[in-house]
Amino acid sequence: MLLASLLSARLAAAEELLQAQVAIESQDLFVGQVVTFQITVSGGAEPQPPDLAAAAPDFTVQYGGARANNSTQISVVNGRMSKVVTRATVLTYQLTPKRAGQLVIPAVAVQAGGKQALTQAVPVRVREPETAPPGGEVSLRMELARDTVCVGEPVVVNWTWTVAAEVRGFDFQLPLFELPGFDFPKLETELDPQLRDRYLGIRVPDGRQLVALQTPRRTATGGATEVTFSQVIIPQQAGTFTLPKSTVVCDVASNTPAPRRRSGAFADPFFGDPFGQRDRALRRLSVVSGEPSLTVRALPETGKPVGFAGHVGRYELRARAEPTEVSVGDPITLTLELSGPDYLQTVNGPDLDSQEDVTRSFRLSPVEPGVSDGRTKVFKRVLRAKSAYVTAIPPLRLPYYDTAAQAYRVAESAAIPLTVKAAKMVTAMDAQGNSAPTATAGRQLQASGRGIAANYEDSGVLDDQYVGLDTWVRSPPWAAALALPPLLFAATLAGALGIRRRYADPAAARARRARAQARQQLQRAGTAPEAHAHVLEALREYLGAKLRLTSGALLFSDVEALLREQGVDDADRAILKDLFQACEAGRYAGGGTAAGQSGADLATAAQRILDALEKKLKSP
Length: 620
Fold this sequence. Notes:
Number of helices: 11
Largest sheet: 6 strands, antiparallel
Strand content: 25-35%
CATH architecture of the largest domain: Sandwich
Shape: extended
CATH class of the largest domain: Mainly Beta
Helix content: 10-25%
């Protein structure tokens, strides 16, 4: 029994032991060749990635992330089944040797769960690749769109890799991305679906990929392929900079046949030639670009306007607003269109919060990111007039430095006239309107000119008939005639009272219809092209009706306090806030999908939360 306990303790200690093993794709490399290096850590959860860049100065290091590598092994011996579960984490790095020679990837310490393990050192042989001659079958150019810019002014760097041979593999080295004093914005590239087979990914040191396009070309010596890609750089300091040369190391197939690979049942078909031809030998070539020079001018301090935020180039600012007839406190959606140089993705809009003529008259919604479309970027803000004395949205200003004129300028939008009414409490009397007494028209008796004598006849023609009230009552026609006026009066009075009750409080009638109208809007929104806008409109209309607010461009912040007062709990308010944010993001981002939600998903979620709110926001 004691022996079993000791054995179990030893096994438990062995399972808790932290282990770190390394693996490398190849130990025979060329300068500039990217190789995958992995550290597999077992016996501890969530290991900390060691800093290989500091430990291996002869390599450019890019950490590729961690992934779980768990396995379960089940065995049956003498009818008894045992299961062994192995849990491990694989840390992946991309290493690129910087120089030739016998290099070493040193041992590093890995920590996990308060324990530490040491990896083994890995020797690597690194050789210089063959340098491609200028004007040969492979060449590389790096060029600037302009060689003189100002601080903060974007400039494009273009690469062109021309290949007139068969290439089997390549690795780019772009030290430009490690140059201090420059920003390298991550810009979205619009891809043509018809050219998807001609795109390549070029890895850069910050871990992302540039999109390169392959284009066939005709040259004096035959056919070739050009691989082109570009990057916007933004200098942050003045001076003259020599951009470091770029390098591409590639395997080029030569005309010399390679030794025939083995055949048989275990031959790898991917290395063989299905037509029985012999593979060609590969040469590893290194192609180097030139080193273009860039002059960056400082922005002058003289004449710099107040509020200048680093906009460099030439800009135009246009503004529009809707609605333009509002009451005090009603939302006004302000749309700003900023036109300027290329690559506006990183450019901010005008700072309205620092313009006193705007903040004096309006309350502003928080700043939201703009949407870029080529050389135009659109920003949206919600304004609310503070008083009925506001007559216009004043001209909005954006200071910038005009590089062509070498002077500061201010882009200014036109003023937008507004009609702002004082806020007024609507009463039942306002809804009913003024009533005036109805004038009665009397009939006037007219005397016949001939008098009664003109109707005189002999008494023999007259019948002796008694007509009294009891006679009228016993006669059905006369009884109906007598009862009809009171009945008509009663019906008219009931209708008038019903109409008066209905229009005495029109907001209550609007609130009673809110749920049905919202349901219809959401059913249509699920399949509409701009579902986010339709769902947002349904939410605003419903909440505006229930809370007796003007719908317009209603924000969640406008209704949050009222919902809390009505007894809506935190969870439902959080769901509603997320819906507002998702719909507003989709609407102001061009109708795109937010957080992976389709229009149908948003419509369904909105219907659920409105059903929950209906139980708490009772209609009057």
